[in-house]
Amino acid sequence: MMILELAFTASPERLAARPAHRSFLTRLHEEGRLLAAGPWADDSGALLVFDVGPAELERVLDADPYYRTPGVEVAAVREWTPVVGSVS
Q: Domain 2-79: what homologous superfamily?
């Protein structure tokens, strides 16, 4: 399980790229590779929870140009081992 944290600025490029990014996330969720994703309430960034390993997460990041868009910064990538709750 992998956690991705993003930091945002109010870049017009980021806002323009967001619809295609969200469509990509929807597909990943339908495939079971993305469990949850969403922005912080103040839109300063976002948290994404992936049911993939580190190598697969790298492929996901490479496949979605949003992560290289001005105004989007990958702030943290962490492996996560949940001990409570259903995440499978």
A: Dimeric alpha+beta barrel (3.30.70.1060)
